[in-house]
Structures are given as C-alpha cells and as structure tokens.
UniProtKB/TrEMBL annotation:
It comes from the Eukaryota. InterPro entries: Znf_SWIM. GO terms for molecular function: zinc ion binding. The keyword Metal-binding applies. Keywords: Metal-binding, Zinc, Zinc-finger. Residues 79-118 form the SWIM-type domain. The keyword Metal-binding applies. It comes from Rhizophagus irregularis. This is SWIM-type domain-containing protein.
Amino acid sequence: MPLARTTIITESHWRVLKYNYKYNYNQPCLDQLTQILVEQLVPDFDLKMTQYHTKHSFPAWWQTFKKDWDKAVNTNIEFAMDKRHHIDTINWICSCPAYFCSPYLLCKHLVAKKNISPAFMEIK
Ligand SMILES: [Zn+2]
C-alpha cells in the first residue's frame, strides 16, 4: 500500500514535533505548544523549503525516487503488455500491481506511456 494513502504522513509530522521540538515537555500546554510551532517548527520548515526551492538540499526520499524512476524507464514492456492494464497518464493511475506497491506511485507503464525525461530528473 502506498505511503501517501495511509496516515503515516500525519504520524510522521507528529513524530518530528514530538522528538525534535517538544522533547523536554511531555504534555505541554496549548500556548506552549503554539509557541513551539510558531517560533521553532515553522521557521525551520520555511528554511528547509527555501533550501529545496533553491536546490541546495533535497528531501530524504529524492535519491530513491530517482532510482525508481530510472528503473521504470529502463524496463522493457513486452508487446501488448500495456493493454492488460488500465493506464491513465493524465490522472497518473495504472491498474498494475507494481503501481500499488510503489511508494511513489510509479510503474513502467506510466513512465513509458508518458515518454518524457522530466527536468527534475536532471537535478543531482
Ligand atoms: Zn503499471
């Protein structure tokens, strides 16, 4: 099951807040929690987004995503194999099992059907 379809992203945000910012406060008051969010979490997140935008830093999943994309590009699709699955490149949906197992919702059918080399793949 893809990670994006679970509550794991929300749980990950709460884990970051719990272990990185309020580790000294087990059960902070609401005003203290708000202060932590406004004065620590949001500026750090803003800095991280600026680094991503200026390409000085990349998310932890970036290299794995690129590797999965390259693997999908370099995989051969057998003749009429793509007829077995419903492939919708506009909504980025495929009915093959690999699509549902991929955490990035990638499969060889979608990548081959789209037939592009996105600019973001050139970024190291
Ligand atoms: Zn597929």
